[in-house]
Write a structure and sequence with these properties.
alpha/beta; Glutaredoxin; 2 domains; 13 helices; 37% helix
């Protein structure tokens, strides 16, 4: 499992770590370990990771500026080196390049001849620098044109690495990311009533309700954004407080949990850092963040993986909270749902 430190924390940590022993960035490469396109394609076969491509030209001043600033930031560079195969691609190179089974060349046409591959991956929009992000063996791609400082690049990296693209468009996520990390003091975290497992079980004995179990870790950035912006949305929080016992479960917690006459622990015996209860709920591999819905008999009836925006989460919660799941297929309900959140 790829371990991801919260990027904001990482940058603060590395700022202190390197204060006395600052690495010297390479003027042409910064602190990032760069690969060729061919090397990156070979590496993802052996050890799959997202690919980041910095498309530049030798005459582009902002390209050089990004190397000297953003890619020379120790925290950013460390995060990229850990979680990506980073590629520097000169859009005017004369090299012949093999890319996804096709051969691309620079035909030498024009005053500043552009490589055919640059035209291909930039969709004909030749702007420099442009940063491209690929995940899932090139199934997902995202393009960001222009100079990116650290604050602009952070959410793009997390969006790609933590598979947030599966459930959210980028722009709304970026807005929530900035709110979660840069405006967190303005967020009322007490708007939703979270319980421990034991607390929820005791409450359930007096007044049976469904359970909503939020599984997260401290190092999962998408978890932080969802906890601070989705669960604190007034519509979401009010509905959960009314319909569910909300359980906050750190997937790396060491506290034992008793569930259906079985005790689940986290002792590392299964070779993972995760609590056995979180693993049992997930069924196979843990996706962070995830939520699990239990009915009033404490049987799992819903698995809600990945980060979700409030407007995405609302119909799913109500599908289970209002017992619609018992007699209506999800696609039908989703199509007709009219929510409160825009």
């Amino acid at each position: 499992m790829m371990k991801l430190l919260p990027l904001i924390t990482l940058l603060l940590f590395t700022a202190n770590l390197f204060a006395q022993n600052q690495p010297v960035p390479d003027p042409k490469h910064g602190l990032v370990k760069w690969y060729s396109i061919e090397e990156a394609q070979e590496l993802i076969i052996k050890d799959p990771k997202p690919i980041l491509i910095d498309v530049y030209t030798n005459w582009c001043g902002w390209c050089k500026k990004m190397i000297q600033t953003t890619y020379s930031n120790p925290g950013i560079a460390n995060y990229i080196n850990t979680n990506f195969y980073a590629v520097q691609f000169n859009a005017e190179t004369k090299d012949t390049i093999e890319y996804r089974g096709e051969t691309y060349v620079n035909k030498g046409i024009g005053r500043r001849p552009t490589h055919d591959l640059a035209v291909k991956i930039l969709g004909g929009k030749l702007s420099y620098p442009t940063t491209l992000f690929f995940n899932n063996d090139f199934e997902f791609s995202l393009s960001a044109a222009g100079y990116l400082d650290v604050k602009k690049l952070e959410p793009l990296l997390i969006y790609t690495v933590e598979n947030i693209f599966r459930t959210s468009p980028y722009n709304p996520f970026e807005k929530k990311f900035n709110m979660a990390f840069l405006q967190k003091d303005a967020i009322d975290m007490d708007v939703i009533k979270w319980h421990t497992w034991d607390e929820a079980v005791e409450l359930h004995k007096e007044e049976p309700r469904k359970f909503l179990i939020n599984v997260y870790t401290d190092w999962c950035n998408g978890c932080v954004v969802m906890n601070r912006t989705t669960y604190t949305d007034p519509v979401i929080a009010s509905y959960i407080n009314q319909k569910f016992y909300a359980v906050d479960l750190n997937a790396q917690s060491k506290e034992p949990i008793n569930y259906k006459d079985q005790t689940f622990v986290n002792n590392g015996a299964d070779g993972t850092p995760f609590h056995q209860f979180a693993t049992a709920l997930a069924g196979s591999r843990i996706i962070l963040p995830s939520a699990f819905v239990l009915d009033t008999e404490l049987n799992r009836i819903g698995t809600l993986p990945y980060y979700m925006l409030p407007r995405t989460y609302e119909p799913i919660l109500k599908y289970y909270g209002d017992d619609v799941y018992k007699d209506k297929p999800w696609p039908e309900y989703q199509k007709e749902f009219k929510g409160e959140i825009e």
